[in-house]
Write a structure and sequence with these properties.
about 15% strand; about 200 residues; Glutaredoxin; alpha+beta; globular; 8 helices; 4-stranded mixed sheet; two-stranded antiparallel ribbon
Length: about 200
């Protein structure tokens, strides 16, 4: 099984998960399971994610490596907290591994493709009802437990994948800033292929 520690509000993770699932399907390897663990950046950084910063990252991703993604992203509806959404994903994983991935991907699609505020109770309730899940959006114990485990495992950031043969931080992308502080994002095909090869071995 592959594990990834990530924040539901991280656009780099949205790209990485989509690319992983796409390659897994192309290889016909549904036996390779993926567990998305919580890496709550608002706890890691001591402050909620900045919608303007996320919008900058999304814009650069659209123009460089992911023109097929982020179609409906709306920074004005970016969630003030991602903890309840990650708690819902954790509840789905507690029921079934495949369901956990489905809900994790769906929440990210609602945020980045449909422009929904996934911190709103009615949005989360609809997802939970659709998949027969019950959860308390105020109960973040599972999210905090994942964060503690991520700290113990030296997680670098979101997304950080762990495979049976090693770990990879954001393997699909090469992310940097130039001398003026401008964001620079490019695909990293060699590292992504090394990551996928490890996953599908």
């Amino acid at each position: 099984m592959i594990e990834v520690f990530a924040d539901v509000g991280c656009p780099f993770t949205h790209v990485g998960l989509r690319r992983f699932v796409q390659r897994r399907e192309q290889a016909g390897r549904s036996d390779v399971r993926l567990r998305v663990r919580a890496w709550p950046l608002e706890i890691v950084n001591g402050a909620p994610l900045d919608p303007d910063l996320i919008a900058e990252e999304v814009e650069d991703l659209r123009h460089t490596v992911a023109p097929d993604l982020f179609a409906g992203f709306a920074p004005e509806r970016f969630p003030a907290t991602s903890l309840p959404a990650m708690a819902l994903a954790a509840a789905a994983y507690q029921q079934d591994l495949d369901l956990g991935l489905v809900v994790s991907l769906e929440l990210r699609s609602q945020l980045f493709e449909q422009g929904l505020d996934i911190s709103r109770p009615e949005v989360l309730a609809q997802v939970a009802q659709q998949h027969g899940l019950t959860f308390d959006p105020e109960d973040h114990a599972s999210v905090l437990a994942d964060h503690a485990e991520g700290v113990a495992r030296a997680v670098i950031g979101s997304p950080h994948f762990f495979t049976p043969d090693g770990s990879f931080f954001c393997p699909a992308l090469d992310i940097s800033r130039d001398a003026d502080g401008h964001l620079r994002i490019a695909a990293d095909p060699a590292r992504f292929e090394a990551f996928i090869s490890t996953c599908l071995a």
